[in-house]
Amino acid sequence: MKLYHTMIRVKDLDESLAFYTGFLGLKEARRHAIGDEATLVFLTDESETYFIELTYNHDGRDYELGNQFGHLAVVVDDLAPVLEEIESQGWWFRQSRPEAPTKYLFVHDPDGYDIEILEVPKG
């Protein structure tokens, strides 16, 4: 058994796609419409081994962010340019303490989900 994807419901598909593809650098792998009910968009990284499924329901329903979900995590070689982008966008973020052994930060996606970004230098 291996992990395949995580599904999250989004309120604004275009805004979420801009965040996940533009900021996080994921790419759209495929898209599936369920009639007029919903659109599913699967995003992945260059490994194409794991996917995030963005589910957009067309009926305009609202969602509450549940407390059972923790966060998604991605890794980068250098956190400094990521932090600059987050600050330039004016997004909420929380970063690791300077004395922490690992540099990381948390940023909210457009729907309020926590995204952890860890610095893992190459090598």
Please name the CATH architecture of the largest domain: Roll
Ranges with pLDDT <50 over ≥5 residues? none
How much of the sequence lies in strands comes to 35-45%
Please give the count of helices: 2
CATH topology of the largest domain: 2,3-Dihydroxybiphenyl 1,2-Dioxygenase, domain 1
Overall, the morphology is globular
SSE sequence, one letter per element: EHEEEEHEEE
DSSP summary, beta strand count: 8
- CATH class of the largest domain reads Alpha Beta
Query: What is the mean pLDDT?
Result: 92
How is the quaternary structure best described?
single chain
Radius of gyration: 15 Å
Structural class: alpha/beta
CATH superfamily label of the largest domain = 2,3-Dihydroxybiphenyl 1,2-Dioxygenase, domain 1
How far apart the termini lie comes to: 29 Å
Q: Describe the biggest sheet?
A: 4 strands, mixed
Q: What spatial order of strands do you see in the largest sheet?
A: 1-4-3-2
Helix content: 10-25%
What's the number of structural domains?
2
What does this structure look like?
By secondary structure, the chain is α/β, with parallel strands linked by helices. Helix content is 17%, strand content 37%. The chain has 2 domains: 1-59, Roll (2,3-Dihydroxybiphenyl 1,2-Dioxygenase, domain 1); 70-123, 2,3-Dihydroxybiphenyl 1,2-Dioxygenase, domain 1 (Roll). The chain has 2 helices and 8 strands; from the N terminus they run E-H-E-E-E-E-H-E-E-E. A 4-stranded mixed β-sheet has the order 1-4-3-2, covered by helices on one side. It is globular and about 50 Å long. It starts with a strand and ends with a strand. The relative contact order is 0.20.
